[in-house]
Amino acid sequence: METRIRGEVEELADDIHRMIFETVRRIPRKIQDLRSGATGIDTSGVTNYRSLILLYDRLFWGSAYRTFVMDHYNAADETPFEEYQLLDITDFETLVAWNVVTPMKELLDLSARYPVTTTSGFPTHGVMDFVEEYAAKKQLSKKHPLLEQVAAEFFDSLGVNLADETTASNQTQ
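Above: the chain's sequence. Below: its structure in token form.
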């Protein structure tokens, strides 16, 4: 936590190395253990594995993290494992909420195949950024369908009509 407050480059690089690179480095072995049954988890019906790394903090510049990981593989003279996706907690919440419209696996596949680029031209690799573009292309609301449903049910239970509240709020602005 201290490195996040002070932002010292060396300590932050050590944190990224430990939290992301070391995690990515262990993924192939984890998949091998799952396939072989070494984990004790029944995976007999599983044919494909998806490697997701969930980060608590908002993920900006996902491509920079991927470059960092690749540089560390090169420095260690190891064959890189590149079949993973970095997600932050907001991406994960977005996937869960959008699952009612488009299955998570489909959104993950699409976001990996068609990464969104920032205005500066860097790929974001962010699921949330992809979903916003995907929603626009499919002419869907960018709002999270599940969250909208839960919010509506909650406010309905309180006797509040969200549509009326939104209209009133927009008229006062």
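The two ends are 39 Å apart (CA to CA).
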